[in-house]
Amino acid sequence: MSLLTDLTPTLLAAERKHMALPKADVLVEALPWLVRNQGKTVVIKFGGNAMVDQGLKAAFAQDILFLRQAGLKPVVVHGGGPQISRQLERVGLESEFTAGLRVTTDETMDVVRMVLAGQVQRELVGLLNEHGPHAVGITGEDARLMTAAKAYAQVDGRPVDIGRVGEVAGVDTGVVQDLLDNGRIPVISSIARSDDAKDAAEGGVFNVNADTAAASLAAALGAEMLLILTDVEGLYADWPHSEDVIPKLTAGELERLIPTLASGMIPKMRGCLNAVNGGVSTARVIDGRVRHSVLLEIFSDDGIGTMVVPDEQPFEGAAA
Ligand SMILES: Nc1ncnc2c1ncn2[C@@H]1O[C@H](COP(=O)(O)OP(=O)(O)O)[C@@H](O)[C@H]1O
Ligand SMILES: CC(=O)N[C@@H](CCC(=O)OP(=O)(O)O)C(=O)O
């Protein structure tokens, strides 16, 4: 009998007394990632559809604070699509989406801004600040963080006018860097100042999809990771017919897939692609309905959703 099998029963008996041992295993599993990523920025997008109950929102806030305490720099970008739709309904306005983007009239824009910056962002800031003076809420308008140009939805390859919807034209990360340098957690609403000087002078702002905003910010900040929390397990290979999640795909594979995608997955996966092409090491879509999904995804060896990685770089020195 080997020494190991000889010792195992004794060891097992000793370990049984320590029911919390799996917790130590989890911490040890997280250690290499923590060491590698000290001081790095992680952009986390919390989708409106994933904010389904108070418990989930509180657990999300704990995860973000954990990341900060562990030496990372979390940046939160939040959505609020369903919350905007509910408010529009209350005031008698209709919600219409084209290619996953909200058709935004001037009237709609007022509601979008009020709900995102005045309600959803305030709630997240409040939850994070229950644990200390950490979170600061801003929109893309603050310190000209994000400027946008009018975007058109693509329908059957043709551009469709969807009103005051913007695509990100520029990001000035100054205000976010200032906050991060001071140990704060920026919580960002996806509203941008118009990049047209005349429009901006008249107070022109654009409604930017929150996935698009998060991806642009992640790339501009040189973030290590973009995490998008939504209300499905990840990218389904054959949605809506099956719930088989694609665990991992390269930027090239995703680019080929994007024209086949539908509704809310279009801005999400386009955002992942832009982030990775913009230098972010991984972009992931995970199920925000799972409590502590951020910690689960980051700190365990098995990811829980869909991970997008850059195309493999050709080996330097390889024959052309
Ligand atoms: N291939 C796909 N895999 C998973 N979900 C998909 C897919 N195509 C479309 N969807 C839809 O996209 C939705 C997520 O996008 P969205 O509703 O905008 O969420 P969020 O509020 O988190 O941004 C899913 O609930 C699902 O209905
Ligand atoms: C242009 C556009 O569609 N903007 C979105 C902004 C909020 C958002 O993206 O929220 P989710 O992440 O919860 O979907 C909207 O008006 O609903």
UniProtKB/TrEMBL annotation:
Keywords, in A-Z order: Amino-acid biosynthesis, Arginine biosynthesis, ATP-binding, Cytoplasm, Kinase, Nucleotide-binding, Transferase
A Gene Ontology molecular function term of the record: ATP binding
Site (Transition state stabilizer): 45, 268
Main location: cytoplasm
A GO-annotated cellular component: cytoplasm
Compartments it resides in: Cytoplasm
Aspartate/glutamate/uridylate kinase domain span: 40-287
Species classification: Bacteria, Bacillati, Actinomycetota, Actinomycetes, Kitasatosporales
Enzyme Commission number: 2.7.2.8
Ligand binding (substrate): 80-81, 102, 207
Alphabetical GO biological process terms: L-arginine biosynthetic process via ornithine
Record-linked Gene3D superfamilies: Acetylglutamate kinase-like (3.40.1160.10)
Annotated pathway: Amino-acid biosynthesis; L-arginine biosynthesis; N(2)-acetyl-L-ornithine from L-glutamate: step 2/4
Role, per record: Catalyzes the ATP-dependent phosphorylation of N-acetyl-L-glutamate.
Name of the protein in its database record: Acetylglutamate kinase
Family from the record: Belongs to the acetylglutamate kinase family. ArgB subfamily.
UniProt-listed NCBIfam families: argB
Record field: catalytic activity: N-acetyl-L-glutamate + ATP = N-acetyl-L-glutamyl 5-phosphate + ADP
